[in-house]
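User: Second chain of the day. Same drill as before.
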Amino acid sequence: MDLNILKIFYAAAKEESITKAAAKLNYVQSNVSARIKQLEEELGVPLFYRTGRRIVLTPAGKILFSFAEKIVNIEKEAEKAVKETSGDDAGIAVGFMETVAAVKLPPILITYNKNFPMSSLKLVSGSTEELLLKVLSYELEGAFVGGPVEHPDIEEHSVFEEELVILSNEQVDDLADKNIVVFKKGCAYRRRLEKFYEGCGIFSYKIFEFGSIEAILACVSAGMGVTMLPLSVVKEKGYKNLKIIPLSDGRGKMTTVFIKRRDTLMTKALSNFLKIAEELK
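Assistant: Same format as last time:
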């Protein structure tokens, strides 16, 4: 199977259009159509359903696409690895949870930029679930998320140990009448708080979703409900009127892990970044 033809198939599948794939690859449309037809004849199965200008993968096409995606990305990794043999200054793309970005990230960035001033950084914030999907789809080289992460294509390295606490604007004896103020679904802290409520036999409560730590803490401070966050975040943000409710029996322990795909290279630049993060934990 010709790699160039496989890349044409991959582009067409991603774009769901022969025309768009041709434009992206800077090929004439007839060339793209001919190469896909050649591949279908070679494999003996149709790879696309043609519906007007749009093309949709057949079951056989979906199978081939899963392999093509890995092959295309492996080729990119190989090229990148060769170019980065002396790669302290190579760029990296890394994801962070909002809480890590608020407390842990600044000293890491300061040290990394001081040691490797020519290395560019692309930083993306999101929930654990969002960042996991971005790592799996090769959009990020790695991410700091709430652990553990159980996925066959992912390897993880423990980096930070966090103490989670429940926060309220008043001392709470009974959480049954307390709503929760949290990040959107996919957040490790939200998932932990919901499980905590379930363990207490509480299944009926209102959920307020926000996109930033500041908004969550402000709403908790105003009495809208309770939340669960790392103690380090509370200390950093300085909300003195918040009541901190510790969790017993180790229920407040959470490990922040660094995840990456097993089939991607740990580049020298990424290794440098992770080493600094571990040293400053």
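The longest strand covers residues 154-168.

User: Great, on to the next one.
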